[in-house]
């Protein structure tokens, strides 16, 4: 491995990460990297051979006790040469002493187990154009809210959004969340009842189906209303959502709306899974950063 070095990623490298993830068929968001860098600017590593980038990983720190591994990619031409495992070890060293999570593709889950990760649930990607079942034919979900109003999330105090997000994520991630919901080209909708947030969803453009994540909701009806409202901002109404199979009602909802499973990854942790509001988690934010 002469000439191999590991460095922090540059802004240009982050563009490569996205392109490589696209080639792997992961369908990353067009602008995800801008929010990712805000989460932890030093949390993205690149492996180079004689100065040429050949592998990448993210090892992002949240708060004092949590970390998340993602973007673990070695270019096909260098696989099996030991570069990937060196980068993996560097990423895990950066998160030493923390509970670490990841979303592992099926073919790598055995390797992750060897590093101490254990599965908590599977995130199943559902794709399609959600059907209109609200009875008024306009696709806005108006018949399902039960007194809940669907509003632009940008109209709400950010502190409310951040506090709501903490129900579904192990640590505060305010800087990331503010960028995630506010980047140009995205739409963020919130479900509000009597001044309380009862749902949140963000849709972002991608190379293929527009991705929705997170998708939080107090009930399946609120989730459906948010889903259909967000889908109105997707080309052809086609969306993709990574749905925890630990929430069976969520899977049933998406199946009932005509979406079909297309991809699967296992959410794994190095210790006990954190306590989250899984009953309200209809779609995870990102497979790269949790």
Unreliably modeled segments: 134-145
What kind of sheet is the major sheet?
13 strands, mixed
In whole angstroms, the N-to-C terminal distance is 32 Å
The helix/strand class is alpha+beta
Overall radius of gyration = 19 Å
N to C succession of SSEs? EHHEEEHEHEEHHEEEHEHEE
Fraction of residues in H or I helices = 25-40%
Strand content: 25-35%
Number of helices: 8
Q: Work out the number of β strands.
A: 13
Shape: globular
What's the rounded overall pLDDT mean? Answer: 93
Structure report:
There is one protein chain. 46% of the residues are buried. A hairpin with a 3-residue loop joins strand 3 (52-62) and strand 4 (66-74). Mean pLDDT is 93; it is low at 134-145. Strands 1, 2, 3, 4, 5, 6, 7, 8, 9, 10, 11, 12 and 13 form a 13-stranded mixed β-sheet that branches. This protein has 8 helices and 13 strands. Helices cover 27% and strands 33% of the residues. The longest helix has 13 residues, at 11-23. By secondary structure, the protein is α+β, with helices and mostly antiparallel strands. The protein has helices at residues 11-23, 32-39, 83-94, 109-114, 158-165, 174-182, 220-231, 248-256, and strands at residues 4-8, 44-49, 52-62, 66-74, 99-105, 118-128, 149-152, 187-193, 196-204, 210-217, 239-244, 260-269, 281-283. Helix 2 (32-39) runs antiparallel to helix 6.
Topology diagram in text:
Layout: E1 4-8, H1 11-23, H2 32-39, E2 44-49, E3 52-62, E4 66-74, H3 83-94, E5 99-105, H4 109-114, E6 118-128, E7 149-152, H5 158-165, H6 174-182, E8 187-193, E9 196-204, E10 210-217, H7 220-231, E11 239-244, H8 248-256, E12 260-269, E13 281-283
Parallel strand pairs: 4-5, 10-11
Antiparallel strand pairs: 1-2, 2-3, 3-4, 5-12, 6-11, 6-12, 7-8, 8-9, 9-10, 10-13
């Amino acid at each position: 491995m002469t000439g191999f070095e590991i460095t922090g990623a540059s802004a240009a490298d982050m563009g490569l990460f996205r392109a490589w993830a696209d080639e792997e068929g992961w369908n990353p968001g067009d602008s995800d990297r801008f929010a990712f860098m805000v989460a932890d600017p030093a949390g993205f590593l690149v492996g180079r051979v004689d100065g040429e980038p050949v592998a990448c990983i993210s090892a992002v720190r949240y708060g004092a006790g949590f970390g998340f591994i993602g973007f673990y990619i070695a270019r096909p031409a260098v696989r099996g040469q030991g570069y990937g495992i060196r980068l993996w070890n560097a990423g895990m060293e950066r998160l030493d002493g923390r509970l670490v999570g990841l979303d592992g593709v099926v073919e790598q889950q055995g390797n992750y187990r060897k590093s101490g990760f254990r599965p908590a649930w599977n995130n199943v990607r559902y794709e399609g154009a959600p059907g209109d079942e609200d009875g008024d034919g306009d696709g806005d979900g108006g018949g399902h809210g039960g007194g809940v109003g669907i509003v632009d999330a940008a109209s709400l105090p950010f502190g409310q959004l951040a506090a709501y997000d903490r129900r579904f994520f192990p640590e505060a991630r305010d800087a990331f969340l503010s960028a995630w919901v506010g980047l140009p080209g995205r739409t963020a909708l919130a479900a509000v009842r009597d001044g309380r947030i009862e749902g949140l969803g963000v849709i972002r453009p991608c190379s293929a189906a527009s991705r929705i994540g997170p998708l939080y909701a107090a009930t399946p009806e609120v989730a459906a209303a948010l889903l259909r409202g967000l889908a109105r901002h997707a080309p052809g109404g086609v969306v993709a959502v990574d749905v925890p199979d630990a929430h069976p009602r969520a899977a049933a909802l998406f199946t009932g709306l005509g979406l079909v499973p297309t991809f699967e990854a296992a959410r794994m942790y190095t210790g006990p899974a954190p306590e989250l509001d899984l009953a309200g988690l209809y779609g995870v934010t990102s497979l790269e950063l949790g």
